[in-house]
Amino acid sequence: LPAISGALSVKKNRRAAHLTEQAIRISGIIAVPCGVFLLVTGRHCIALLYGADKWSEIMSMADGSGLSLLDAASVSLAILAFAVFFISIVSTCNSLLNAYSKPHLPFIAVLIGIAVLTASEIAILYSPLGIYAAPISSLICYTIVMMMDIIFLRKKCGVNLKLTSMFARPVFSGLVTALFTYGTYKGACAIWLNYLGNSIDTRGASFFILMCTGIVMVIAYFISVLVFKAIKEDEVRLLPKGNTIADKLLRLGWLKADSKIED
């Protein structure tokens, strides 16, 4: 963000636009596997943090069926897993709009998002999905806010952002990673039940399952983004220890060198 402000101050608009796209892309690239992890392992995240024994109560639903608190919370967290991507992009875009000296635009976007959130939550609350009104309306809210921020960056800041080309490869890498993550998750659950314990909802089981799943997910996503060329050299350099990682990947031929952007 300081680099964007610096580029704008000396009228290097192409450089500022390139850095803007980089910032949004790297936020999305990091957010994708985080969302995948919550989607697959949300139940055990809750069990590890709060203990499954506190969530064993069964709620009576309107249709007469029963639902445990842990199952309800797990579904809610799975829905919010999709919102991780949008929340991450919104956070970055709001900062970018401030860098472009447009601090009022994030306020407008969030205000519209809150109005949509309120209306959608009221509508969903009285539908069969009522118990999940909060996570669903939050997902809708952040989707709307993200789209508003992207439109503002295009129209008010002159940055030509194309969401399909920006996120198609990272999202595809995330889908491939999701397959490996889900397979590892099911395998870790089976190993625990067959060899280590009789319940997968304990804190010990959750820690084991989350560790196994998380390690495989990180490795699978790292390989996927390289195989499908979902990340660029200059984006790798934005990461912690990015210069060292980028130089090693370039030497191995796993990363393509980028051409420099000049005004």
Question: Can you offer a commentary on this structure?
Answer:
The chain is an all-alpha fold and 263 residues long. The protein contains nine helices and two strands. It has helices at residues 2-9, 13-50, 69-99, 104-125, 133-155, 163-196, 203-227, 233-236, 242-252; strands at 58-60, 66-68. Strands 1-2 form a two-stranded antiparallel sheet. β1 (58-60) and β2 form a beta hairpin. α3 (69-99) runs parallel beside α5 (133-155). The radius of gyration is 21 Å and the shape is flat. The mean pLDDT is 90.
Question: Keywords, please?
Answer:
9 helices; 263 residues; mainly alpha; 75% helix; 2 strands
Layout of secondary structure:
Layout: H1 2-9, H2 13-50, E1 58-60, E2 66-68, H3 69-99, H4 104-125, H5 133-155, H6 163-196, H7 203-227, H8 233-236, H9 242-252
Antiparallel strand pairs: 1-2
Helix pairs in contact: 1-2, 2-3, 2-6, 2-7, 3-5, 4-5, 6-7
Residue share in helix: over 70%
Shape: flat
Contiguous runs where pLDDT drops below 50 for at least 5 residues? none
Main sheet overview: 2 strands, antiparallel
Q: Rg to the nearest angstrom?
A: 21 Å
- Beta content comes to under 5%
Task: Report mean pLDDT, rounded to a whole number.
Answer: 90
Structural class computed from helices and strand pairing = mainly alpha
Number of alpha- plus pi-helical segments: 9
> How are strands sequenced across the largest beta sheet?
1-2
Kindly report how far apart the N and C termini lie. Answer: 18 Å
**Tally of DSSP β-strands:** 2
Secondary-structure element order, N to C: HHEEHHHHHHH
